[in-house]
Every structure is written in C-alpha cells, then in structure tokens.
Amino acid sequence: MFPKYDVIVVGAGHAGCEAAAAAANMGSKVLLVTMNMNTIAQMSCNPAMGGIAKGQIVREIDALGGYSAIVSDVSMVQFRMLNRSKGPAMWSPRTQNDRMMFAAKWREMLENTPNVDFWQEMVAGLLVKDGKVQGVRTALGLEIEAKAVVLTNGTFLNGLIHIGSKQFGGGRAGERSATGITEQLIDLGFEAGRMKTGTPPRVDGRSIDYSKTELQAGDELIEGFSYLDTDKPKNQLACHITYTNTEVHEVLKSGFNDSPLFNGRIRGQGPRYCPSIEDKIDRFADRDRHQIFIEPEGWNTVEIYVNGFSSSLAEDVQYKALRLIPGFENVKMFRPGYAIEYDYFPPTQLYNTLETKLIKGLFFAGQINGTTGYEEAACQGLMAGINAHNLVYNKESFVLNRNEAYIGVLIDDLINKGTKEPYRMFTSRAEFRLLLRQDNADIRLTPIGHKLGIASAERMERTQQKMQDIEKIIDYVRNESVNPEELSNYLDDLGSAQLQQKVKLDKVLLRPFVGLESLRKEIPRLNDFLNSFKYTTIESAEIDLKYEGYLKKEEELVVKMKKLEKVKLKPDFDYKQITALSAEGMEKLTSIKPKTLGQASRISGVSPSDISILMVYLNK
C-alpha cells in the first residue's frame, strides 16, 4: 500500500510542518502523518507569532527557507515591533494572526510542496531493528517503512486535560491523546517525564465593552517577518488591554480547593514564564491586578482570546471571575480554559542534530523535547527535517552554533543543560544577541540555507543585494561631511552640543537620539541618497555604524569560543579515568558525551575547574 519513504514525520503541528517542508524541499520523499488533516498547523493556544526573542527565531526560519514567516505574514491581522525603546538587540517582531487563515495557508503550502504525502491516522509505535528506526506502526496496524522518523507529537503523548475537578484524555480540546509511543520508547531505554501547559477561555467579542479597556494598535509600518515580498494587510485589527482586580482574585481563590494545580492532580511542571492566572495570584499575592490582553482570533470571527487568563479552574469559577474584569461585565464565554499534561523526553538524550542517541535515524522536535511555543517548535522541526534528510542521503550533519542563531542557542541549551520545565526562548539566553538581531537573520543564514538547498536563488539574490546596499550606506555616511550650521536647530531640539567644525556624518550618528531617518529630514543630499534604499536596509546599516565597537567585542568573544569548539572529544572517551574531575562533572560528561571541549563547557554541572582539568589531561 505504501512505498518506502525517506522520512516520516509524526505530527502536523508547527514542528512537524517545518520538518516535512525542509526534508521535502531538500529532495527527500516525505510522509506527514497526522491524527486530523483538518488541524494541520493548528494554533493550539494564542493566535500570534513572534514576540521577545521568538520573533528573531521566526526570521531565522525564514532566512533558512522555512515557511513559518510567510504563513504568519499572509495571515496577520496586526503587526508590532516590540522593545523599540530598548537597544536593537532587543527589538522583536510579533504578529497577531487569523487562526483559521494561518492553518489553511500552512496546509496549502504543504500540499503545493513536491515530495510531501499525507496520511491521517494515529501512530501507535515505531518499527525498530538493531538500534535503528525502520518506520512506524499505525493504530490500524499498518506498517510504513522509512529510513528516518521525526517525532513531533506536541502535547498529545498520553495527554490529559484538566478543568477543575474534571479530567479526561486529550491532546487538546476536542481531540484524543496519542498512546503507545511513550511506553515503547521507555522500553527502548529512554527517560520520560511529564510537563503541563494551559490555555485561557475564549469569549464573544460582541459582549465586551471596549470603552473600559485600553487600545493597543499595530505599528504604522508593517514590516512582517519574511524577507520575501509577502502579502500584508492594508488595515489592522486592534487589540485591547484590561486588568484583573482584587474581586477577580477572590473569586478565583474560591476555586482553589478543586484546582488540579493545587490539590496535586497535576504532576507535570508548568511554564515559569507563562503561568496560569491562579498560579499568578498565588505566587504574586502582593499584586492587586494583572494585565489581560484582549486578542481577536481573526478577520471573520467574533471569538476573542483572553491572553493572561490561562486557567484550569472549574468553568463556573472562570466565568464568574471573568465578569468582574472591567469591560467583561456582560461577557459570554465560548469555552473555558484548561490545563493539559503530556509526556516529554529530556533533550539531553539527543545529539545536537536532534537525532536520538539510542536509536539511529529517530529525531525528536518540539514539545516532546520540553519546549513551549510555536516558534521554538518550528525551528526544531526545521533542523530535524534538514538533518533527517542529510542522514538518509549520507550528507554531513547540520548544526548552528550559539554565535550563528537563536536556533543554535536553543538546541545547545536543550541538549547540554536539559530542562525540567517548559523551555522558552529569551534574548537573555543568547550571549551574542547583538550579533543575532532580527534585522540581519538573512545575512547570517540565507547563504547557509541556499547551500543546503532550501533557501531559493531569489532569497540569495535579495540577501546579496541587501549586503551591498548596507555597505554603500555605511561608506556614504563615513565619507560625507556636514557643516555646523546645517544641524544647528536639530541639535538644539535634541539638547545635544553644537558642532564646532565640519565633521563626517558617522560622528554625528554616534550621538544619543540621532538617527538616519531624522537626519535625512535636515540634510537634503542625505535624503536624496537614502531614497533608493529600503527602510529596513537603512536601519541595519545604522545599527552596524552605531554599535560597531560593541559588535567587534562580541566577535572577539566568538573567536575565543571557537577555539574551544576546535578541541574534539571522542564519543567513547572514558571520563572516569580522570579522577580529579568533580563527581557531577564526571557524571554529566559521561551521560551527554560532548563532541567538543566547547560543548563540554556549556553542560550544566560541569564547572570551569572541570574544563581546566580536562584541558590539562588532553594536553598530556
């Protein structure tokens, strides 16, 4: 019935979709298996993409040739660049999306991707022989062969949904959980754990009094995510903000006795940085209010996502508490929030390619690795798909380093440090975040993606043109002089010292609050020159000029890090023979088997003194 596939991808969430697209675009024959063809790329939680550090990841996926950015742009209802008041390393794009349009566009793009086949059914187990994956076994007993398998099961592995005292099996609302895979993997020697996440209630937007809320409009300039020319909306939908209060908190507390979070029914660890509303009022008891974001679900629906009100309390408690929030006095609830527990596998059991150490050809991506968020899942899927293809075709494995991408930081953190709570990306996790900005992901990664065969020639041409344009702008600004009288009024308005003599433009640009966009209004010849360049290109050139010193420092640190990466460690190295190592260091090095001294230095529990001892031993 089935041919033998190169790669089978299990699960069609954000990780699975990117994995299937990447492997197929590189030339693999791919089968994407999902329990429901109608929920491909479903936005299970909030209808949004990007945000702090996550926006950088979406742009990195796009730069490499993935689909997430294109889908996000086409389905957006609002765009905002977050953290504009901070330095450029912190700027993060975010879109509010039409939930149904997002999923429909993803399915359309996958169906138009040659080499991708589909099968709707639950995968109940893996075909494994002599430590190598051979394919999958479905719930109907069908055996489908493949040379590599990528598991992207999301929250479906033995998923258990909690609403107050009620609990029932499910991967998400209205869909059954997946069984069989966890038990088989444990029998094969894998370590498993439980995690928990949640979602807020959905309400009827027609029943909200927006006059009692704060407007949160989108940016006037809609940049979007993709470096290609994607279709973007001419208009945007507004989001709104409101707040809880002490009355809301008291009603929520009345449901704590039946709360699965507090009475022990939920055993899985929840996300630290996106806690439920009951968790927030318990952990931050001194706060008398919490922010609630009112987010539309799409262009043609009245459904509203109540961001900030994730809850597993009983539905009647959720409803009573909601009606005490300003603007929600007459709100109608479509469905209650809920918590979901699911199985995951500590990611220290993976190589940096996301292939498992125990079973050759088996890859894990997404929430199965303990991460949370669409973006974190999507980038893992992309990397797993690339490496599954490379394994099948005997090509060199593909790894991004910490200095190359947020994707590299994420995977390096997971495989070396592991995680006991849902892992979420932040800018603070990246030590080279000024190099890893959202505006330069194409410059960093499109040449790599083009060489791999997933980033198109068009992308490469655009990137090369952008790099040339940035150099032209930098060269002009460094060589063009400006007279003191030209900027006299401008500098006065800024409260900046007057120029005493003719100076080059780059010297003026280094001053606080001075930018090329404001300077061009004062200097006609600068304006004429910049008219032939895109706004985003001008912005990138300005960042390179203003932060040149800081960028050089980060590049020097990268050179030092690369020296450690050049020191290779054998996978069968016996660390127990180095008795001077700390007990924990010896245990972690033996367990993770780092490939380089650089990787060893980033393993949680391996101290600097352990690295020094290891270096001395290697030198001998």
Describe what this molecule looks like in 3D.
By secondary structure, the protein is of the alpha+beta class. The protein folds into 4 domains: 5-199 and 342-452, FAD/NAD(P)-binding domain (3-Layer(bba) Sandwich), CATH 3.50.50.60; 202-338, Elongation Factor Tu (Ef-tu), domain 3; 457-551, tRNA uridine 5-carboxymethylaminomethyl modification enzyme MnmG/GidA (Arc Repressor Mutant, subunit A), CATH 1.10.10; 566-619, GidA associated domain, C-terminal subdomain (DNA polymerase, domain 1, Orthogonal Bundle), CATH 1.10.150. The strands form 5 sheets. Strands 1, 2, 6, 7, 8, 9 and 20 form a 7-stranded mixed beta sheet that branches. α6 (246-253) runs antiparallel to α8 (315-322), α11 packs antiparallel against α12 and α12 (457-479) packs across α17 (535-546). 48% of the residues are buried.
Main attributes of the structure:
620 residues, alpha+beta, FAD/NAD(P)-binding domain, Elongation Factor Tu (Ef-tu), domain 3, Arc Repressor Mutant, subunit A, 4 domains, seven-stranded mixed beta sheet, 22 strands
